[in-house]
Write a structure and sequence with these properties.
By secondary structure, the protein is mainly β. The protein has a single domain (12-379), classed as Methylamine Dehydrogenase, Chain H (7 Propeller), CATH 2.130.10.10. The protein has 1 helix and 28 strands. A hairpin with a 7-residue loop joins strand 26 and strand 27.
């Protein structure tokens, strides 16, 4: 078992891969200022790499919860034989809760069984004990006691559209959760491949919010639901503005998803998975385009992160420090993350992790040689 990473206040990356979870911590006095990998493949230069935790298990969801005096890691490892479990650590990975603790189960009369947890989202500081999970088959779970007990959100579990929802290539997964931060407030979720849904009453009822978003793979390109949304992001300072990466299509909404406008201006492809919001700027968003749904690699074999700083009116390629030849890379929907004040991180299916400390202008390699990276989360733990 890995020994855990000390939490001395530096930035830490939570890395979920198809063969376990890893923690990468910026060394004191090092990190992004001190270069990247030292050639060992294990996180050199300014980073310490710890893992694998849950070796051999897929970890598509991780999170850090620092509300109400906690310093807790969450992870959702999936074992192909024993299924998905929800685990937590209060000592930054030195030990983890048992497999049977904090179990997440569908009601028996639903006829559904948990396949995978795709998203772990601690609530805002105004709801300090609330945690939400996005799972497969598509549903939202909520805990109101910091993860002790879980219940399925009935409004989605019994939604009248459910029988007509169709899975995307990765399954019928609820992978994105956006809230306004208010107890009992507004929330938007995204399901592949059912589209975006919004609740205005704390989750009691949900309505499809996909007007303007196309479903390229369906006979009706603009149905009420059935779009394959890959990611939605927003900034708390402007919660009504949402940005959406679709299975073909980049969009912005300024009315909480009532309508969507195409913003694919100056990108090599509007197909992709990953999307992340700048931590301090409601107009700045990052994406990593892929060539197509048939060839899910970076266009022209160039690893480029694209950034808009004007709400999607224009996009610029960020390449300094990233390979621009023979880089047939793929960045998945939860493998791009940001951290205040202006740090950006992403991981690839080839097992590389990159970091930027200047809002994406320049990049350094954190580590390479990992299993395929499917989840990247960034946090700044309190000093132990």
């Amino acid at each position: 078992m890995a020994s855990g990473v000390e939490t001395n206040g530096g930035g830490t990356l939570l890395l979920g891969t198809t063969k376990g979870a890893f923690l990468a911590r910026a060394r004191a006095g090092g990190g992004l200022d001190d270069g990247g990998d030292d050639g060992s493949g294990g996180g050199g230069g300014g980073w310490e790499l710890d893992g694998p935790h849950f070796p051999g298990e897929e970890v598509y969801a991780m999170a850090y919860d620092d509300r109400a005096g906690r310093s807790r890691l969450w992870a959702a490892p999936h074992n192909p034989f024993w299924g998905t479990t929800l685990r937590f650590s209060d000592d930054f990975g030195a030990s983890w809760s048992g497999k049977a603790e904090r179990s997440v189960r569908f009601p028996e009369d639903s006829g559904l069984a948990l396949k995978r947890i795709w998203q772990i989202q601690p609530g805002s500081v105004r709801e300090p004990d609330v945690i939400r999970l996005g799972v497969e088959p598509a549903c939202l779970f909520i805990s109101r006691d910091a993860g002790e007990r879980w219940e399925a959100v009935e409004g989605l579990l019994n939604h009248p559209h459910r029988e007509r929802w169709q899975p995307g290539a990765g399954g019928l997964c609820l992978h994105t959760i956006i809230t306004d931060g208010e107890p009992g407030g507004r929330a938007t979720i995204a399901i592949s491949a059912a589209g975006a849904y919004r609740s205005d009453d704390g989750g009691t009822t949900w309505t499809a919010r996909n007007e303007g978003v196309r479903a390229e793979f369906l006979p009706d390109k603009h149905p009420e639901f059935g779009q394959c949304v890959h990611k939605i992001v927003h900034h708390p300072s402007n919660p009504a503005r949402l940005f959406l990466q679709n299975h073909w299509g980049l969009y912005r909404s300024d009315d909480w998803g009532d309508s969507w406008t195409d913003i694919a201006n100056g990108v090599p492809s509007d197909f992709g998975f990953a999307m992340a919001m700048h931590p301090g700027d409601a107009d700045t968003v990052y994406i990593v385009p892929l060539e197509s749904d048939g060839f899910r690699c970076t266009p022209e074999a160039k690893l480029r992160v694209y950034r808009t700083r004007d709400g999607g009116a224009s996009w610029e390629a960020l390449t300094e420090g990233l390979p621009q030849r023979n880089a047939y890379e793929t960045v998945l929907r939860d493998a791009l993350a940001t951290l205040a004040p202006a740090q950006v991180f992403f991981g690839t299916r080839s097992g590389k992790v990159y970091a930027s400390r200047d809002a994406g202008t320049t990049w350094r390699l954190v580590c390479e040689g990992l299993p395929p990276v499917v989840c990247v989360k960034a946090c700044a733990p309190r000093e132990a």
